[in-house]
Amino acid sequence: MAAASTVEVRRTAEERAAYAGDVALVRSAQAGDLAAFEALFARYHARIHNVVYGMVSNQEDAADLVQDAFVKAYRALGSLRDGQAFFAWLCRIAVNLCRNFRRGRAHLPPLSLDEGFLLDGEYAPLEVADSSYEPARLAEVSATAEAVRKAIETLSPDHREVVVMHHLEGLPVDYIAQVVGVPVGTVKSRLSRGRDSLRRALRSFVES
Fold this sequence. Notes:
By secondary structure, this protein is an all-alpha fold. The protein has one domain (2-207): Rna Polymerase Sigma Factor, Chain: A, CATH 1.10.1740.10. The protein has helices spanning 13-30, 34-56, 59-76, 86-103, 135-153, 157-168, 173-180, 184-207, and strands at 117-119, 122-124. A two-stranded antiparallel ribbon has the order 1-2. A hairpin with a 2-residue loop joins β1 (117-119) and β2. The longest helix has 24 residues, at 184-207.
């Protein structure tokens, strides 16, 4: 946990502005303001849940791990020096919990894209294509989601976690590098290999 407090992320001006609102909340929470931490929870719960769910593939396990991540973050919040790094720091806590969880599981359950991801506080399917209410179109989207689900399951844990963080949650590469504790070049390599694996896994579906 001590290492998590030293998260330092290089940000663009746009990224700094996006996370600037965390600074006041973190300071208030560090001073004992529970409402401030609840605001941070509300801001990031869905995003952390989606990262965790993408890594452990089970809604109940994800909910437990997300709760554990926020509890650990609350207890260690005093060690966080940069309030703008809160989300990256929280992600690192969550990722480490997922890694420990996976070590205790021989096999992860199947990843469901139909439930488990949070959108506006509700469980929702991963949007893999623009859909309409036409039955044929809905069937096509469902088939695509199933193909993506199976493809993600084929990824190694290292590739899966960076693909989930980058492509499902939109985290930039330098953030992911800080979260998983590896150089940026390693993250790029894992993303490249993960995408190659996904392409191979999806090739038969795309060509059919």
